[in-house]
TrEMBL record, chain B:
Occurrences of domain Calcineurin-like phosphoesterase (ranges): 4-204
Entry keyword set: Hydrolase, Metal-binding
Signal peptide: none
The protein, known as: Metallophosphoesterase
Any one cellular-component term (Gene Ontology): membrane
One GO molecular-function entry: UDP-2,3-diacylglucosamine hydrolase activity
The keyword Metal-binding belongs to this UniProt entry's keyword annotation: yes
Any one Pfam family match given in the protein's UniProt record, by short name: Metallophos
Length: 85, 241
């Protein structure tokens, strides 16, 4: 089905592609469309994965500016522990 | 007292191989067992499964895992399970394991679980065949968890799933997708099983802490929720023993 360019449909389509495209396979990312700008938010594991996300989003929305606001995952060791009864 | 380390949704791939293992340095001094709540890979390929097996082999403490939906994506879940088991990781699906941790017997029952939603707003086994199959699987896996818990007679019991048993640990996710993130049937199984702690992943935007209707602590250990390599939970119930 051809992608409707309305922001409502466009954000849904980008989100689905980020999950289904083999290059990204990312669930749980947020996609917000405001005017000609697409904002990508959420957490990703590496700079390479971030580049892939931008690449896939740009393919679907070549006329939009992609603003990648994702953050890189933090793998520091835990400082404390939780005590449970 | 028994200290449990737990994490889920590590989504290992070539680009991050070895990074996670580095963050596990020193874990044997802090925990007696490591639990992995599924989504260990990105695409569920054999290659990624091998990377996960290498990441968790010979850590010096028992590693117990369930698979997640990503680990099923390439239909290689059986091969991934076999590779993890070859590396010494215990993989649960509708079964359990009993570990003797410094004299405390810890029972862990696990399943991937599935979606369907939460009490009053859940799916049902009705209508199209696809819908019936979807909810039938949720029922089947939840029943598997209940049976695996029932078989345990240990000092401490943990339920390990990928999908969430409760809504509380999904807070932060859009409520419209809750039915894809978990099922109350998992909580019902946990509440029947005299469980001390329930661990799950899957909900990257969710919250860490919740509780079942029966009062069992639930922890969402998805890596993006924890914002650290793993969480540590000390079960003080063992003090009385």
């Amino acid at each position: 089905m051809e992608t409707n360019r309305e922001p409502h449909y466009l954000s849904a389509r980008v989100r689905e592609r980020l999950t289904e495209d083999e290059r990204t396979a990312e669930q749980g990312l947020q996609v917000v469309v405001r005017g000609d700008v697409i904002y990508l938010r959420g957490t990703v594991a590496s700079e390479e994965r971030r580049r892939r996300i931008e690449e896939v989003a740009a393919e679907i929305c070549p006329d939009h500016e992609i603003r990648d606001e994702t953050t890189l995952i933090d793998l520091h060791r835990p400082e404390g522990e939780e005590r449970l009864p | 007292m028994t200290c449990v380390a737990a994490v889920a949704d590590i989504h290992l791939g070539k680009d991050v191989c070895g990074r996670f293992r580095k963050s596990l340095e020193g874990i044997t001094e802090r925990a007696e067992v490591l639990l992995l709540g599924g989504d260990l890979t990105r695409h569920g390929t054999v290659e990624e499964g091998r990377a996960v097996a290498d990441e968790f082999r010979d850590l010096g403490l028992p590693v117990v895992a369930v698979l997640g939906n990503h680990d099923y994506h390439s239909d290689a879940q059986d091969e991934i399970t076999a590779m993890l088991e070859d590396a010494g990781v215990i993989v649960l699906e509708g079964d359990n394991v009993v570990l003797d941790l410094n004299g405390v017997r810890l029972g862990i029952a696990g399943t991937k679980g599935f979606g369907g939603g939460f009490a009053g707003r859940s799916a049902s086994e009705f209508g199209e065949p696809e819908m019936k199959r979807f909810y039938h699987l949720t029922k089947e896996l939840s029943t598997g968890l209940a049976m695996a818990l029932k078989d345990l007679d240990t000092d401490l019991k943990i339920a390990l799933t990928h999908y969430s048993p409760v809504k509380e640990t999904l807070e932060g996710e859009p409520s419209e997708i809750y039915p894809f993130l978990g099922s109350y049937l998992l909580a019902e199984a946990i509440d029947q099983g005299d469980v001390d702690l329930a661990i799950h992943g899957h909900a990257h935007l969710g919250s860490e802490r919740g509780v079942t209707p029966g009062g069992v602590s639930v922890r969402n250990v998805a890596l993006p929720v924890l914002r650290q390599a793993y969480a540590l939970y000390r079960l003080t119930g063992a003090e009385a023993m």
